[in-house]
Design a protein that fits this description.
alpha+beta; 8-stranded mixed sheet; 434 residues; OB fold (Dihydrolipoamide Acetyltransferase, E2P); homodimer; 31% helix; BirA Bifunctional Protein, domain 2
């Protein structure tokens, strides 16, 4: 090959090498013909470059948008080009062709393209700025979450998603044919996280969890990605809240720094600090909702409207539309939840952020006796949980933790209305593909 | 509480604060009584501290190993203590008790403890140095893998593990009851990775994959964690190999730097550079095995013994017991594998490291026509893969990638004989718990 003599370079490095012969590869993003001259905007994962060739050459190669090409040429200064330089094409090779009549193009706005089409043509959708941004932001959230915990003595763990039974008593489980037995997809790494803190004190896991929920709302998925952490030696749920304040604030600062311009395409202001968002008791929240919005209908839990209203009240109070709600009714929480006081409240919290719950967390019971009582109080035979309860005989410290749904967090960071927009390949009651 | 006035600190910070009143929490690692004085070695996730109290106090609290305690006391210089200081205990509180008669203790050697017991008592096992090290190393490998790819323009993706059908034609799949349908657990993110490179050019994923393999050997799991990457615009599998050389070398350097002393407890030398390990063609490997070991029985694939022998030959040739084997017979590789030349070889490779295969990778076909031909050549109707093949009409660049099994890599780094030792909660034909 004539082009083999020089190695391919990323487009982001072109500015450094002018003037020089370069070899670049990417997708045809845009084409423009001006008389005898043609402009090809080529894109790779690092940027875009304006390439100049003859209109004749363009026609010879039958080039069109989304085709995959290799360009050999010379970088030269060109003040009229966006980057301040362009590539004079010496040689062009089509590596693969895209089909004609694609439903949309990477260079198009996709406001009028439906979610179904974006899912069906995922690779093409990722090449658009709007969809690509979602998953670049998601990847950055993941990286920042792990980095923040790495700085705080947390050890990453990987736990099985194939389990014998559910953590919360057997509902909403997907059954698996496991050789001659039935197994289930894990609803949560909760038990394993707790075993993890008994070993490592501080653990986190990022992984899928599964809920066989038949309703297909804009908030629910049957498979989602959970950012889970658990830490030992806490005295109460406030320490978990404090950790989340700091962790999310660092993650948001990281995103503002790395992807600030991307964020501002989707939201009015950079991601806020959560260090001063309020923490309101559940009862206090009901009272505030009653006073401000005449909500007299809530008792055991919040509803989506209540979550939005509380965020609005928090925004008025602190300038940030986020609030920790602490002390939900214990009866509605899983059996392993620690109580808060003796009036039926739980030492557990939700974080509501810009209108929706993105975290559930709290302190857990750490004495075996208390767990057995809690199971019996829910009419569950503790013997069914013996394998788990036995771990509380090995030196189980007081502990708590939280879980953040990655898709919901991505949605809230970018202001996306449907959680499916923040999943590459969403799964729900009706969707198994692509 | 009397102790609430000062906040808990990590043991690693104690040296900085001497002499001062401190509050620490952790597990009782060791106890020693010398007349009226007792020594308690307390451990948290950052280190261990020698605490001094009266033998009387020890008895009053009925302290024993693995109990979870809080100590308030004063740090003072003590040249005879390992860390150069100790904590004079002013107040001690038992936060939770461990059971008596545990099968082993964190401070014990566990050479004589069987794998079954280590799995059954996971939290306790993690508190031992030997088992804890495995999962600290594993976490570091994960972090280094992601960091190395982050530096190279790779975007992390999260793809569904619930799929309509297998990537390789429907064998060894676990079936899931998905509402009124059958779905399957993903065997590999291969197709999604390929769609990912068509969008982002370079993608990686770290996640579980599932194989319903009925054999329960020391190398096989039904659920394992795959470090997957895929990159576009390659000219051949050599570029994937080159990337892996650099990536693993960086990961190993990172581990040597962060966990060098841990590694040297398990292996004779630090982790090697892979920059100069050889890359041998498959046919050449057979020839070398024939000459050196009289192996005339291999034709289509290597066997475990052959992998060990090749690593030994590589060690003799280059000083490092690792070798890339390139050009396996195409017929034995998945349909999406690109050919290498026209003599029936595949553009795919394995990396053998210290006796075992830890990576499979290669270049993939990127033209739809070629994929359809490859399917037909395997007597598979391309219409069954239409949803996947349609992605090759959207501008699919030439691409390739690889997958590293995290558990196997962990085993090879630490010299562990059984892959189950490198999984917190292994799953195989017979094991669904804990």
């Amino acid at each position: 090959m004539a082009t083999a003599a020089i190695g391919r370079v990323f487009i982001e490095t072109l500015g450094e090498s002018a003037p020089a012969e370069v070899l670049i590869r990417g997708w045809v993003y845009r084409l423009r013909i001006l008389g005898k001259t043609a402009f090809l905007i080529l894109r790779d994962c690092t940027g875009e470059a304006q390439c100049v060739l003859t209109s004749e050459a363009l026609k010879t190669h039958r080039l069109k948008s989304e085709d995959v090409v290799e360009v050999r040429g010379t970088v030269r200064t060109e003040p009229r080009a966006k980057a301040g330089f362009e590539v004079a094409v010496a040689d062009l090779r089509v590596l693969n062709r895209a089909a004609a009549n694609l439903p949309f193009l990477a260079s198009h706005g996709i406001e009028s393209v439906g979610l179904e089409t974006l899912l069906q043509y995922r690779p093409l959708a990722l090449r658009t700025e709007a969809v690509g941004d979602i998953f670049r932001v998601q990847a950055a959230l993941l990286a920042e979450f792990r980095a923040g915990l790495g700085r705080r003595h947390f050890t990453e763990i990987v736990t099985s998603k194939i389990v014998e039974s559910g953590t919360e008593g057997g509902t909403s489980l997907f059954a698996i044919d496991y050789f001659d037995r039935v197994a289930y997809l894990a609803q949560s790494p909760q038990f394993y996280k707790e075993h993890g803190v008994a070993g490592f004190e501080r653990v986190f896991e990022t992984g899928h969890v599964y809920r066989a929920e038949p309703h297909a709302s804009s908030r629910h998925l049957t498979e989602y990605y959970s950012l889970d952490l658990e830490l030992a030696f806490i005295e109460g749920p406030e320490e978990v809240i404090e950790l989340e304040r700091e962790l999310l604030t660092e993650m948001f600062e990281g995103l503002n720094a790395r992807l600030g311009r991307t964020l501002l395409k989707h939201r009015a202001a950079p991601l806020p600090s959560l260090l001063r968002v309020p923490c309101w008791e559940f009862g206090e929240c009901l009272e505030r909702l009653r006073k401000a919005f005449g909500r007299g209908d809530l008792a055991e839990d919040l509803d989506p409207e209540g979550e939005r209203q509380l965020c609005e009240l928090a925004r008025q109070a602190s300038g940030v539309a986020a609030v920790f709600v602490l002390g939900f009714p214990l009866a509605a929480r899983p059996f392993y939840t620690a109580p808060r006081g003796s009036a039926g409240a739980a030492a557990s919290f939700d974080l509501l952020f810009e209108g929706i719950e993105i975290t559930t967390g709290g302190q857990r019971l750490h004495h075996r006796d208390d767990l057995e009582s809690a199971l019996r109080a829910r009419s569950i035979d503790p013997r069914g949980f013996e394998r788990h309860l036995a771990m509380f005989d090995l030196g189980m410290p007081p502990h708590g933790g939280l879980a953040i749904g990655l898709e919901r967090l991505t949605c809230q960071v970018l202001g996306l209305p449907n959680v499916r927009q923040a999943v590459l390949y969403p799964r729900d009651r009706y969707r198994l593909a692509p």
